[in-house]
Amino acid sequence: MSDIIAGIGGTTWAPPFVFVDRVIHMDARTAVALTVFGGRDRFAYGPFTSPSLTVEAMAQLSLALIRHSDPAVEIGIIPSLRDVVLRPLPEGPFQAAIRVQWTEGSFPRYAFEGAAFAMGEPVCEATLDILATRREAA
Amino acid sequence: MAVFDRARLADVFGDAVEHDADRAAAALTHGFEAEPFLAGHFPGFPVVPGVILLDGMILAALRALDRLGGAQAEIGAAEIGTVAFHRPVLPGMAARFSARLDSRDEAAGRFAFKCSVTVGATRHARASISLSTR
Question: What ipTM describes this predicted complex?
Answer without folding.
Answer: 0.93
